[in-house]
Amino acid sequence: MSKLYNTQKDITSNFEIFLLNSIPNIRKTQLNIIPSILFGIIQAESIASSDIAKNLKDNFLDVKLDSVIKRINRFFRNKLFDPYTFYKQIISYSLSTYKKKHSDKRVHIIFDHMFSHENYTTLMFTMRLGSQGIPIWFKCFKGTDNDAFMIDTILQGIKEVSDMFSDYDFELIFLADRWFNSCDILNHIDSLGHTYCIRLKKTLYVYYFDEKEGHIIRKTAGELFHYKHLSTTYNNINITKNKLNCNIVISDSKDTDDPWIIATNGDSRRAIKDYSYRFGAIECVFKNQKSNGFYLEKITTASLKAFTSMFCLVCVCVLFLTLLGAYYSRNRSSYKKENITTHKNYIINGKKIKKRVLSLFNTGLTLFKRAFNSHHYVTISYKFILYDI
User: Fold this and answer.
1) 198 Cβ neighbours under 8 A, 6+ residues apart
2) Domains of the chain: residue spans and CATH
3) What's the predicted TM-score (pTM) here?
4) Is the N or C terminus of the chain more exposed, i.e. has fewer CB atoms within 10 Å?
5) How far apart are the C-alpha atoms of 293 and 44, rounded to whole Å?
6) Pairing mode of beta strands 132-142, 120-129
7) Does residue 17 sit in helix, strand or coil?
8) Distance CA 13, CA 34 (A)
């Protein structure tokens, strides 16, 4: 029988080495089970305990399936496992390896809510990587009417993300949709020394000095004059009764249903382009965690503690596979036998355009599947190095 490479034992051993490097104080009981669960999630493409258990062999071969499922569920419920601290240590480790390919020091952070039917709500912060994203901070809540929407929760997320980057010379740009157009949020980002590009509701009141009228005028943001198919800029304009001073850029593009009304404390000329980076980055992460990846939305009856633990390990898998996809993209010449189609050429307006058709996450997942139990050696990077793509 020919030798098999990247077996379950090989993969879990490498996950174990990474966890020891990134979380030196990890409990032995957690080290004994987490690598296997990570492998099971990826192999099953599911977070359901029964699906994970069915894909575990090696040390689990002589154990009844029901017993394996119970062991996995016990881990998810275990109060000694702190999913927030665990993921913070892993993402902090990855950030310490971040290799930007340009001198541009701007890093885009996107935040939004994710819903798992009506059972759970998660406030999620992601970091843009290429045209996609990776999860960097989250907080889970039960139901849909909860503290996930409280300003203090959002401010906490912004502050903790800011702290993650405090040792690095990056310019953070926070992006969010109309739900987050609170002066408290904008002021908080500004006070931390970061840039925001956040869409405003068109019903929000703005105050500005009209030179023709000779006095301050109050209008809704939606009533502000703007050009069609061109950007219109209002610098040093005040919003809401709090009179928060910022710049507003309005873009009424044929590609959008409603005009984008973007508030920013940064360069008005970059506001629309920066805000456009919101699309794809966080939605891509949501899809990878749910129907396009690990089916978190199928979890309906777990306790909040169990769901948060599941969410944490799904984030680890999304991070791992996205970074593996980035590693493959940077080292294609080393994968001559694994020719994964990641881009295709298109003719657009008479020009040949090369476009990515397979996300970094799905590139990593495809490579992982091909490498598992392969008859020839396929390199899988377990270093969680954050490459700029």
Assistant:
1) 174, 175, 176, 177, 180, 181, 185, 186, 262, 263, 264, 275
2) 85-282 (3.30.2170)
3) 0.93
4) N
5) 10
6) antiparallel
7) helix
8) 11
